[in-house]
MmcQ-like protein (Sinorhizobium saheli), 121 residues
Amino acid sequence: MADDMERSFERVRRLAEAAGLPETTVGTSYGTPALLVKGKSFARMKDAETLVVMSALEEKEMLMELDPSRFFETDHYKGWPAMLVRLAIIDDEALTQRLIAAWREKAPKRLAERFASTAPT
C-alpha cells in the first residue's frame, strides 16, 4: 500500500514540477505526502487512489456536479475548500489544472500574481 501511495504521489509531484509552480516543496500533511507552497499544503494524498486538493468552494461544487466520477467529497470535507480527486481516472492535463488551481488557493498573493504573469496562456 505504501508503495502504491508513493507511486501515485510521484505522479502528482512530477506534474506540479512540470507546471513550474514556484516555491513548491514536498512535505507531509496529516501524515501523508503533500505538496506545499510557502509551507502551506495545497495537495496531499488521502490514500493511494485519492488526492485532496484545495479548491474554492464554488469551483468545487461545480466540478463535483459536472464530473462526480473524478471529483467528490466525503462528509469530512463538506463546507471545506478542498475536494477529493480519483487519481486512477483523471488524466495528466486535468490533474495539472487542478494542481495549479490548488496552488493558487494557497500561494501568497504576490507569488500567485507573479506566476500568473509568467504562465503561458
Summary: The chain has one domain: 2-110. The chain has a mean pLDDT of 94. The beta strands are 24-29, 32-37, 40-47, 50-54, 71-72, 82-86.
